[in-house]
């Protein structure tokens, strides 16, 4: 219990200390107008309040990641706590904050556009393909996951295909309508349900005196299972997730002032880390050890763990509410996944989105492809998603490092976690069966060499960009003069 409580305390302290430092490094401009005003279109660009933006951001980035990932990551033992705390404070929250703030400085641009500007035009095409693939996988996975949970919750009284069709219909509406019509109105309620359910489980663990394992040399992780690099692809949301880089521009287009960024971007990542801690602790403590957890996962998957934890700690009614809170997570990330995909493609082909027909022509093919992807085995989809997710995180962290390098600021806050995850991403794809299936020792060597070469190339490009005075932000001086 001490490790669990200390970890949550560290996450909160991290927001007020390191989060404040990252904000200072970036350099907030209080008088600069945000895209919500300079590019207002009534659809994607429009100002919303900080509480509303924060809850939408939390729900956008959460998905089932901070629940299902930590539940599966609990099999690694208390080392999962270390990755959640360190990863969240020094990697994930930095990733989210820099992505969101750089997007604000560049008319709410998505990651492919930012990668094109700061890492080279070729990267625009690479990242665009990565981002759209990632979002399609997320949207598809987050149709089947909540549908399965709702099917179990209804005891099979509602046909699974009806539930899937209803979720798809909601996704279509949330993707096409202005951001304040569905997302802006429903998310505050969904957010309250999510927070209440997570707090309920966390308080339940404390009140019942759950035997949450403490970190020790002998109990670092069970059965000497190999941690690296698998844990970084098991626990993503709640520590570091490239999916977040596809979501933050949605809110960068609705943020009223730059100084709200730390609460919205850095703060909500910390909140997600706390949710991840709660579910990792529950999974470690409630199934008579790792063998019991492994059996539960083998028989019913993470959804069965969620159901068992919720009903055991909170009773029938409270447990049902907690499960509904978990159901909300993938739905509120699936809808914004499709919305982000629409916005990224529109930005890529330079198609304005004010007209409904323009949104429709982009969205329909996305949903058609997603329907086809639902026929593929979930486990295969999730493996590719995990790798694409962390590869996207690496790209976003290098964009942040490039921005700070050109600005002559402390770029190490982004480059260090970016380089670390670059090594993990390369090692994973070289060793994994879905990749090159090389022996682990060879994978480490090739990964180290490749990562070193890429970092050297990064510094060469960064020095050239600084020497050429690459503009860091879109010039809105005329607008600022008009509102002054």
TrEMBL record:
Record has Ribosomal protein as a keyword? no
Q: Which GO terms describe its biological process?
A: cellular response to starvation
**Which GO cellular component terms are attached?**
plasma membrane
Q: Please verify whether the record's keywords include Flavoprotein.
A: no
Q: Where is this protein found?
A: Cell membrane
Its chief place of residence is membrane
Report domain CstA N-terminal positions: 3-164, 305-425
Name the source's superkingdom.
Bacteria
Keyword annotations for this protein, in alphabetical order, are: Cell membrane, Membrane, Transmembrane, Transmembrane helix
Q: What is its membrane topology? A: Multi-pass membrane protein
Q: Where are the transmembrane segments?
A: 75-98, 126-146, 158-179, 186-207, 227-243, 264-287, 313-333, 360-381, 387-406, 411-430, 442-462
Q: Give the family, as the similarity comment puts it.
A: Belongs to the peptide transporter carbon starvation (CstA) (TC 2.A.114) family.
**Name of the protein:** Carbon starvation protein A
- Gene source species: Bacillus mesophilum
